[in-house]
Design brief:
heterodimer, A: alpha+beta, STM4215-like, 2 helices, 7 strands, B: mainly beta, 7-stranded antiparallel β-sheet, about 5% helix, globular
């Protein structure tokens, strides 16, 4: 066993989204620390993966032991302003279905929260909703 | 002062046909040791008096269930052993895994095994045991 590779977990999460949104109808997706200039009146998704606290699951020190690693995926969905929420929620359903209670490559996704409409979109000029998915992975040392 | 955190502990076990080895995935253990007493009060005493008698022990070991974890299957399935001759050995460590150090060792029988699966939680197994024979304390 070995310590968890957080980049592998991140790649699992982001790769799943990139693959889904690359299929028709394709929607641009941008991740942490990436430049992106959105096209006005277009739809696009921002995916932000963060890791939170870990906890001991069992006995042992640096071998024969387990930790729980938890994290959060925040998915901001942007769509055209002033045309209702329908198009945005269609994307929201695609994203929600992608993670809803799914277990992939040792990453356990919980039931998603949202899509929740945000009163103050950032950046402005779009209708924005947000889906949040907590996840956990068991580290086996 | 040298306090010990619970996660430093471990459990070693063998079913009676091998050598002690770590059970991977344990997350708690407990041992309660009890000494019976015999009333030795005699005529003339005005306060009751006792002498120590038989010593026995029992406890639990809880695991995060992982069917692939080394030692778990033998441990959780020991309760299924029929005609159990109390030939299983336990060593419970408060810290480390050096045999005979910071531990309690004894022969025993696993008397209960409960596996539980709850929505939103990890599957866990809880085993209860009783000791049989000498309990060796290395809690120096």
């Amino acid at each position: 066993m070995a310590a968890a590779d957080l980049n592998t977990i991140r790649a699992t999460i982001e790769g799943r989204l990139a693959t889904e949104l690359a299929s028709s109808p394709a929607i641009p997706v941008v991740f942490h620390n990436m430049p992106y200039e959105p096209t006005p009146n277009s739809s696009w998704v921002q995916c932000l993966t963060t890791f939170g606290s870990s906890e001991y699951l069992g006995h042992g020190s640096t071998s024969n032991s387990y930790n729980r690693i938890v994290g959060l995926v925040v998915l901001n969905i942007f769509s055209s302003k002033g045309v209702g929420p329908g198009a945005n929620y269609v994307i929201g359903k695609r994203i929600r279905d992608l993670y809803n209670r799914v277990i992939v490559s040792g990453v356990f996704f919980d039931a998603p929260i949202g899509p929740e409409a945000l009163a103050s979109p950032a950046p402005e000029g779009y209708f924005q909703t947000q889906v949040r998915v907590t996840f956990e992975s068991i580290e086996e040392l | 002062m040298a306090t010990i955190r619970g996660e430093s502990g471990s459990v070693e076990f063998e079913t009676g046909s091998g050598s002690l080895a770590t059970v991977v995935g344990t997350r708690s253990w407990s041992l309660t040791t009890t000494k019976e007493t015999l009333d030795s009060t005699v005529h003339g005493n005005t306060f009751r008096q006792f002498v120590g008698s038989m010593i026995s022990g029992s406890g639990t070991v809880e695991l995060v269930y992982d069917p692939d974890a080394t030692g778990q299957a033998a441990f959780v399935e020991d309760v299924m052993k029929t005609g159990d001759a109390a030939d299983a050995s336990f060593e419970l460590f408060t810290t480390g895994s050096t045999n005979g150090t910071d531990s309690l060792s004894f022969g025993g029988i696993i008397t209960d095994m409960e596996i539980s699966s709850t929505v939103g939680e990890l599957v866990t197994v809880s085993c209860s045991y009783i000791t049989s024979g000498t309990i060796t304390s290395n809690l120096e």
